[in-house]
Amino acid sequence: xxxxxxxxxxxxxxxxxxxxxxxxxxxxxxxxxxxxxxxxxxxxxxxxxxxxxxxxxxxxxxxxxxxxxxxxxxxxxxxxxxxxxxxxxxxxxxxxxxxxxxxxxxxxxxxxxxxxxxxxxxxxxxxxxxxxxxxxxxxxxxxxxxxxxxxxxxxxxxxxxxxxxxxxxxxxxxxxxxxxxxxxxxxxxxxxxxxxxxxxxxxxxxxxxxxxxxxxxxxxxxxxxx
Length: 226
What we know:
mainly alpha; 2 domains; 9 helices; about 0% strand
């Protein structure tokens, strides 16, 4: 199979398996095998499909589409923000995350990074994908990073729809004071920014992850990050 076609196939399978979680098929699977087994199977499939995509991407030829001076350095600027979003999102209880719906019962469930966006991890992934797609500017990167970008952006909307259906009024109250798009709720006056709630340790975790990624980038991907 042509390497680009192989990568496209892997990406389509990756997207299809992830979008299943937002269809009625998910409910049927959970009912058939149980929540814990479903989460385990879903995690395994995610790991395998990401591995397949990465394997296909590393073997795809470089076919340039655009070359813009200076764009290759954009990841150095954008990735700290991306990884801080991911770190803060992982380290914060979030009603939009799997198994954390009980966080809606807190007096103020929209704290910290959730004041910025209710989907910090997804937006961190979207930033990573978008800036690498722009910096690389080739066919394989368009397919590979484009797949992650589609998943991250579409995923936020699909999660919102699923949570609204499952959690009703509790989710509606949470959504009313938060936003999908970062900073929208703050700009609209429905929330406020609080750096102290995000916390220095979450920011430090994101920046530490950035330093590690820069250091091991040549070993993992064969090219320096700068």
